[in-house]
Each structure stands twice: as structure tokens, then as C-alpha cells.
TrEMBL record, chains A, B:
This is Histidine--tRNA ligase. Keywords: Aminoacyl-tRNA synthetase, ATP-binding, Cytoplasm, Ligase, Nucleotide-binding, Protein biosynthesis. Belongs to the class-II aminoacyl-tRNA synthetase family. One of its GO terms (cellular component) is cytoplasm. InterPro entries: aa-tRNA-synth_II, aa-tRNA-synth_II/BPL/LPL, Anticodon-bd, Anticodon-bd_dom_sf, His-tRNA-ligase, HisRS-like_core, HisRS/HisZ, HisRS_anticodon. Homodimer. It comes from Pedobacter soli. The keyword Nucleotide-binding applies.
């Protein structure tokens, strides 16, 4: 067998022990909050039938789905006996002959399939979260990988706006527990955007309108105006749009202005009422507890997922680091129609765990505890000391303390280097003196301080 | 878009909330023990370059690797312009044109790649565990899936037999914590098997010999004898082999007999000495703590992974349920040679999590706590009661209790059915009386008992 210098597949990553501890800190924190709000975990398989995934993500999305070759001698009994590679659109034709499954592209379509397949076992409202990798054949670049985790939480079968309010609290609590101090939860409502398009008499141009005003941050009012004109709006329309785009003040002030502007749009007013009810729920929920850490901001330029979301829309950003959104989601009215189960409403949000990781790293917010694996290393200088150490080693473990005995006799320097490399905070040194007196030398690796203590003394100190 | 009745890809599974809680109970228990013994988690990508995986699992294994189609217009610039499907061995030729990556088949080869690629960042001994799914294009059948989790723990870069002893304690502790009461950890040593083949003068037939005697349980001594004769052994060889195959008694008695039989084989005696040292380590480790729950048994018919293992070999079985092995592993001398890093020794074991799941299910060993998601449901009968409940809901969550408010007003029966379906143990009923008095009705869903308590009273009771 020839030896190959190994490499990672393009766009994929290994996670080292230190990275895993940090990643688990993020997932565990978020999952704990999900559970407190009554959400339960499910998992779906890594690959699905191609027919389940195809046609759900648009033409561009379909191209990014990783297809899996049929297994075994998949060409032994082909429908064709030869294949012309030069033929037009040959890839797609060949795929249908040699592939019938694909890696999941997101967690939403598999969730929809899950709900439809298990509809008789599920009690609505069904509150689920799912934290699993997804795969996309994107061109890899900084911060964009071909395998990455999604972290989704959804409730289906309930149109109560309490759910929307609870997602605000979930973001607030989870991101707060991760250590973020200044972040914004932006909220908008598809119905408000529909109302705006309606009052300027261009309901069909809602997507064009929102695509343009979504860019306000980047290209300013002049840029937005120019783009709106290009996209079919008139100067007269702009007159009406401008005050809406430039809406300022507190959430209450914005809502008051919008009520005037949208007075003639039933849909628009419905959107305003929904936002008000969500804000009302949030206020009531936190009445006897801590105020929101998050800034909750009505932002009518927010327009993600408009071909999908039908009610409230969310986006979360940190204000401490320049970084795109670290979360988002919204209300949808037809999750499972693609699989024949109509009119199932739901609302869901997701956490961008990879970006959150980068934010915590940049702000140095990973707790020191998240770095510690093994807490105590016991030295091993010779066979006698090793034998002395063995029952002590197990005593520490029985006390729930992650402990290692250096597995062979070795020089002090080597063992210390091992403790350093693994970030082990305490080393117990056992030599002749220690074995005679029963008082072991405990070295604090951070301070360098050493003291003599009995086994029970050290166990006490660790608690 | 036509509507497709959705289905799972063949050989894959969804995991419901109840199943996830149970699966997590198993993984969390095992991981906690790994960490206590100084092992740290890593993860590797779901897919690897095909060149990393091919040729590592034998011809049969290679066929079971799921290959991923190159992405994009993967045939736009093919090396050939047409392809004859009827040509011999066409699948393999086509694969090389259209696929360059594949789903991981196990965790061992990716771990070897990891060690080689990160050899400059790793401090030896490197103690890692890894719990991730693997994929195999096997024909699905009861208990065999195309996607399943492996749960591996290995230390590389240390030849100390302390590691072997610690794996025995890891099995003992993890399986004990999962609730198993009667299970056996079988141990053997490749060198003992080599010694046996050596003393009967057939060292080259070691694999044939072990394959036959491994079947003792199933086909009895006569069956084994017959198979040995077919595989090239003589009646004279059988004379020598019989006492070894039928070795009985305590571990000490078996070791004493083996020492006589293998007196002339240096390798065989080395194997015996290794087993003795492992047993010695185990005894010293548990000197001041609990005795082993597991039965530790020297079993010289144990012969798994002989083309791979070079020292101790392990296999774990439960004695409470008829089930194949629920764990196994051993010492290897050349993990990373396939990637050009020679002579790296290591030892590792794995847990068969799917089988352990079935065992715990059959023995009814999943703790009741492993079933509980939401602990408290607050009823919702009308807008007034809902408003009253909102801050209480949040008070419970702030106390760390997983709590839900039924998201819309609904009849009692419907809300109770929801609590039942989700196995929620407590329901708080809030009606007019409760709002007036401030004493809420707490219903214990298991006993059916109801009592009136203040919010603080209920919070106290939950602690």
C-alpha cells in the first residue's frame, strides 16, 4: 500500500479537544435554555432520499446539495448501456441513473418530513430543537465551510404569538449566558411590509421594495432611492416610502407613526397589532424578573426569508464585534405543504453557532472552566511511586475529579510539559518523602505554588 | 411542485424526543466517565477524501463506503467524452471520474489521519474520545443500520499497560452507571494466541486456529476440532490444542496452566505477563474503592481484530440479555503507518451504543428522569388567566425548571392530553379562585393528587 500524505476534504474541519470543549459550551448553553422553554430534541438522518430534498431550495440550492452515489455495483444493470459525456445537461441525467440520496442541506426540510411522517405520534403544538451538521457544496472561504452545524428551534401547530415572545426571551437568555453583553434582537413583520407595498399601490413589488430598503445600512437613503427607481417605483412612491424607511425613535414611537401611515391597510395594521402583542407578552413575562439584556428593536428594513415567512421576522446581531447576524427566524404558514400536509403554521429561530464561536473567541468570553479537561495529573517517577499512586488515582476519580496518572515513569520535565500542554491545573508530585510522610506535594500550575497535603486534604481543596 | 409522500432513506432512522433523551443519557454517562479518566473529545468531518479511506477496510469494506458525487457540473470537463456502461469493472472506473470524497466508514481511520496531520500540536500520550455517526452501505436488517454512532476511546503514544487496566475500569464504571448489574469483560492477548500457534509448530496458521476456536461457544469442541482439521491442523496438533481450548477455572488457574503450556514460547510468556500486569494494575487501582461490578475473565478463545491487534484484546458482554458484544477493543502497534507515521502504538476500546440502548430498554433501566423534558405545564383558560400566568411562567424558568404555558386558551381536556403526551409530571391550574386567592392548584399527573399552593410553595416543592 502506497503511503498518502493525508489531508482534509476541502471545506471541512477537524475539531481539537480545546475547540470541542468550547463548541460544547455553546451547544450545551443553548440546549439548556431550549429545554427550559419546553423544547425537546430530535435528530434526523444525515442523508435523505434525493426526492425529499430536490426542488426545495431553488435551482441554486439544488446545485449545492451533495449527492451520494448508489452503493455496490451501481452500474451493473443500468438503464442505458453507454453514456455520452458531451451531451447537454449530462450531469443531471447521469445523476438520476447513479444517485438516489443526498446529504441534508438544512434542518428545515428534514423537520418538515419528520412532522409529516410522524404526524400521528406528535401532539400539537410540537416544540422541537435540532442541533446537527448540514452540508453544502459551496466554494469554501473564510468562515464558510462545506460542513457546519445548524441549531434550530421551532414550534409547529400553534399560532399563538406567545411563541414569538418566548423566542425573544430564549435569545436573550442563551446569548446572555454565553457572556454577550450588548446585542440586538431586531423584529419586523411580513404583514407590515405587505401593508407598505399596498399603500403605495405596488403590492406585487414587495420583494423589490424590501430588497432595496434592506440595504439602507450599506448604501444610504440615496442609494436605496436610486435602486427603488430602477426596480419600478416612481418619485411619487418614494415620497410615501421615505418616512417609513427613515422611521426613528423608540419602538412605541415607530409603531405610532406606522399606524398613521398604514391606517388604510388592513394587513399592515394586523402586522402592527402582532408586533404590539409580542412586545406585550415580553413585558408581562419579565414583569417579576430581570429586564432584557438584549435591545429589542422594531426594524422595518429587516426583510429576510420573505418567500417563506408570513408574520414576525427576527434577526440577532452583536454590537460588540463586527459580524453578520448571529441568529434569525420567523413565522411561516406552510411548513409541510411540500409533503402534502397543508396549513401547518409554525415559528422558529436558529443560532449561528460558528459565528457565535468567533464572537466569544474575539471577546475572550469562553470561561476558563471551558478549557479544563483533566483537573489533576499525578506524577510517575518509578515503579514504587506508581504503585503508591494507583489507589489514590482512583480515589480522586471516585470523587468525580478528572484525574490522570502519568502512564510511565518519566523525568519531571516531561511530565510537566504534558500537564502544560493539556492545561491541567494541578499536579501531585509523589517522591520518597511523600510516600514516607503521606503528605503529597500539590503544585498549582497557574501560580507555581506548592504545598504539602494529605490525599483527603487535596480532595477537600478540590471541592 | 408535485407532492411526494415522504419516506426515510433505506437503513436510516429518525430519533424522537423520547429516544433522544435516552440516547443522550447513554452518551452523557459514557462521556462523563471518559473525561474522569483524562480523555478529551475530538470530532472529525463527516466526509474524507476518498484516498484517505480507500484500501483501509479490505475489498469488502471498500464496497460499503458511501461515495459522494463531485459537486457542480462535475461532468463538464471529463477526462473521457463518453463512458461505456457495459465495460468490465465499469463502476470503479466511473467512480474515479466523478467522486473524490466519501462518508466516513469508522472513527479509526479518521483518527489516524487526525493524529498524523496534527502531530506537531499533539502531546503524547494523546488520550481522545470520539462519538460520531458512521455510514456503511450494508444491506439494512434488524439492528443493522446504514447510519449509526460509534463511541471510541483511544490513547496513542503510550505502551503502558496502565491504559489497558483503565479501560477495564472505564467499562466497569460506565456500564455500571448505566444500570447494568451482570456483565463480563473478557480479555485475551494476541501474544498468547501467537504462542499457542508457535508451540504446535504452526505459527502461520494463527488466524485459521483462532477463527476455529472462537466458535467453541457455538459449535462445541467436536465442531472446532473438525474445523481445525479442515484448516490444516493434524490430530497431533489437536492433542496439544485441546487443553488450551478447554482451559477452565479462575483467571489465576488459567494463567498457571498457560504458563506450563507456553513455557517454551517467549512470545506466549510475554502475553501472559502482560495480562498479569493488567490484572495487577486493576487490583491496585481499586484497592481503596469499590470492587469491580464486572466479571473480568481471561478467555483465550477471544480473537477479534487479529489482523490489527498486537497485545491485549477486549470484549464486553451482558449476561442479563441475549445480545452480541456491547463493546470491545485492543492494543495496536501501528495506527498511523498507513499515513506514513510509523510505530505509533496505542490501545482503544469502543462502546456499542445502539446495542446498549436495546439492553437498557429490555431491562427497563432508563431512569424515569431520562423521560422528563418539560416539568411543569401551566394551564391557559382565558386571556385574564394567561396574563396572570405570564410572570409566573418566567419565575419558574428563572428557577431552572423547564416550564411551559399552554400557548392558547383551550379546554382542560385538551391541555391535559398535551401534558400526558409529553409526559409532563405537573400541571398548574389557574382559574378565577386561584387568581383571587393567589393559591394555585398543582396537579400531580402520576398520582392524580391536587393541592393548593402559592407560587413560592410550588417552587419549594420542585427543589
Amino acid at each position: 500500500m502506497s503511503v498518502i500524505k493525508p489531508s482534509l476534504a476541502k471545506g471541512t474541519r477537524d475539531f481539537s479537544p480545546v475547540e470541542m470543549v468550547k463548541r460544547n459550551f455553546i451547544y450545551d448553553t443553548i440546549k439548556t435554555v431550549f429545554k427550559k422553554y419546553g423544547y425537546a430534541e430530535i435528530q434526523t438522518p444525515s442523508f435523505e432520499n434525493l426526492s425529499t430534498l430536490t426542488g426545495k431550495y431553488g435551482d441554486e440550492g439544488d446545485k449545492l446539495i451533495f449527492k451520494i452515489l448508489n452503493s455496490g455495483e451501481f452500474l451493473k444493470d443500468p438503464k442505458k448501456k453507454s453514456f455520452d459525456f458531451a451531451e447537454e445537461d449530462n450531469s443531471n441525467k447521469l445523476i438520476s441513473l447513479i444517485s438516489e440520496k443526498a446529504l441534508r442541506y438544512d434542518l428545515t426540510v428534514p423537520f418538515a418530513r419528520y412532522v409529516v411522517m410522524h404526524q400521528n405520534d406528535i401532539t400539537l403544538p410540537f416544540k422541537r430543537f435540532q442541533v446537527q451538521p448540514v452540508w453544502r457544496a459551496d466554494r469554501p472561504q473564510k468562515g464558510r465551510y462545506r460542513e457546519f452545524y445548524q441549531c434550530d428551534v421551532d414550534v409547529v401547530g400553534s399560532d399563538s404569538l406567545l411563541n414569538e415572545a418566548e423566542f425573544i426571551l430564549i435569545y436573550n437568555e442563551a446569548l446572555g449566558k454565553l457572556g454577550l453583553k450588548d446585542f440586538s434582537i431586531k423584529i419586523n413583520n411580513r404583514k407590515i411590509l405587505s401593508g407598505i407595498a399596498e399603500i403605495i399601490g405596488k403590492p406585487d413589488l414587495i420583494i423589490d421594495m424590501t430588497v432595496a430598503i434592506d440595504k439602507l445600512d450599506k448604501i444610504g437613503l440615496d442609494g436605496v432611492s436610486k435602486e427603488l427607481l430602477e426596480r419600478g417605483f416612481t418619485e411619487q412612491d418614494l415620497e410615501k416610502l421615505r418616512p417609513v424607511i427613515l422611521l426613528e425613535g423608540s419602538n412605541d414611537e415607530k409603531l405610532a407613526s406606522l399606524k398613521e401611515v398604514l391606517a388604510s391597510s388592513e394587513t399592515g395594521l394586523k402586522g402592527i397589532a402582532e408586533i404590539e402583542q409580542v412586545f406585550g407578552y415580553v413585558e408581562s413575562l419579565i414583569a417579576y424578573s430581570l429586564p432584557l439584556t438584549a435591545k429589542l428593536e422594531l426594524d422595518i428594513t429587516l426583510a429576510r426569508g420573505l418567500n417563506y415567512y408570513t408574520g414576525c421576522i427576527f434577526e440577532v446581531k452583536t454590537n460588540e464585534v463586527a459580524m453578520g447576524s448571529i441568529g434569525g427566524g420567523g413565522r411561516y404558514d406552510d411548513l409541510t405543504g411540500m409533503f402534502g400536509l397543508k396549513d401547518l403554521t409554525g415559528v422558529g429561530v436558529s443560532f449561528g453557532a460558528d459565528r457565535i464561536y468567533d464572537v466569544l473567541e474575539e471577546l475572550n468570553l469562553f470561561p476558563a472552566a471551558a478549557e479544563v479537561g483533566t483537573k489533576v495529573l499525578i506524577s510517575n517517577f518509578d515503579a514504587e511511586a506508581e504503585k503508591y499512586a494507583l489507589p489514590i488515582l482512583q480515589q480522586f476519580r471516585n470523587a468525580g475529579i478528572a484525574t490522570e496518572l502519568y502512564p510511565t515513569s518519566a523525568k519531571l520535565k516531561k511530565q510537566m510539559a504534558y500537564a502544560d500542554a493539556k492545561n491541567i491545573p494541578y499536579v501531585i508530585l509523589i517522591g520518597g518523602d511523600e510516600m514516607t510522610s503521606g503528605e503529597l506535594t500539590l503544585k498549582d500550575m497557574q501560580s507555581g505554588e506548592q504545598k504539602k497535603l494529605t490525599v483527603l486534604g487535596i480532595l477537600d481543596l478540590m471541592k
